[in-house]
């Protein structure tokens, strides 16, 4: 893909990757039990109120301004219960990515040269987390990771398969997953391998209980609506082993959000992400900014998220510093 207004990384649009593929007919809200329908309405109402309190305003890729996330989602996917319009949102996204070449340059929106910097930044972050979170840093354990929005297997091939005994790939675009199988066929070993290839949309996937040490979510969660975002993480929380964690690595809007109308994705701001994480019942363990990317691209941030509450670090105050003269303001 050539650099344009809608190039996946350019800070006037969004996203690298993946959209749900082969979506079956949706379950209509009216077909759900009354108690579940009420619960969905309550959760959506709470989420919308939380975001409105943050005054999350934003724009789309055509320059249209929105006063709130609620206003934007109402236009994008319709009112509550309009499953037809919501399903079309996902299908349009699939269509976009089905027209993209199954290569590193393709899935990175013409920015294939950022691959090395991206992997290096991710590896430094991952190694630190494994040392702190996993018993003995993960050594002498059978470690399993889930690569969400795996695309052609770029992250699994260059990073995850070196640290995990098994990696499952989740990718809704069939041509990307086929390329991933081919790319990973000669990579790894009997003790470090790609195990499962799931061609399932992220918003419909439920991982196996307590299978994963790490669930890696990169450049794909922007394709999920807010309610599907929360639903996915609520399902996935029970799929982590004790000590396990999520890594979310995504583009950041400077404020509010940016809606890309071409590939049906949303770039969220840091406060927007944090509010959604809170709604998921996840705890922010650690964050890190990605370095070494071209200036014209969105900023990229890595979040490590846990189900358990991270222990507080008590820092002792330096006596020397404490006795220094202070400026009176």
TrEMBL record:
<keyword id="KW-0949">S-adenosyl-L-methionine</keyword>
<dbReference type="GO" id="GO:0071885">
    <property type="term" value="F:N-terminal protein N-methyltransferase activity"/>
</dbReference>
<protein>
    <recommendedName>
        <fullName>Alpha N-terminal protein methyltransferase 1</fullName>
        <ecNumber>2.1.1.244</ecNumber>
    </recommendedName>
</protein>
<dbReference type="Pfam" id="PF05891">
    <property type="entry name" value="Methyltransf_PK"/>
</dbReference>
<dbReference type="GO" id="GO:0005737">
    <property type="term" value="C:cytoplasm"/>
</dbReference>
<keyword id="KW-0489">Methyltransferase</keyword>
<keyword id="KW-0808">Transferase</keyword>
<comment type="function">
    <text>Alpha-N-methyltransferase that methylates the N-terminus of target proteins containing the N-terminal motif [Ala/Pro/Ser]-Pro-Lys when the initiator Met is cleaved. Specifically catalyzes mono-, di- or tri-methylation of exposed alpha-amino group of Ala or Ser residue in the [Ala/Ser]-Pro-Lys motif and mono- or di-methylation of Pro in the Pro-Pro-Lys motif.</text>
</comment>
<dbReference type="InterPro" id="IPR029063">
    <property type="entry name" value="SAM-dependent_MTases_sf"/>
</dbReference>
<comment type="similarity">
    <text>Belongs to the methyltransferase superfamily. NTM1 family.</text>
</comment>
<dbReference type="InterPro" id="IPR008576">
    <property type="entry name" value="MeTrfase_NTM1"/>
</dbReference>
<dbReference type="GO" id="GO:0032259">
    <property type="term" value="P:methylation"/>
</dbReference>
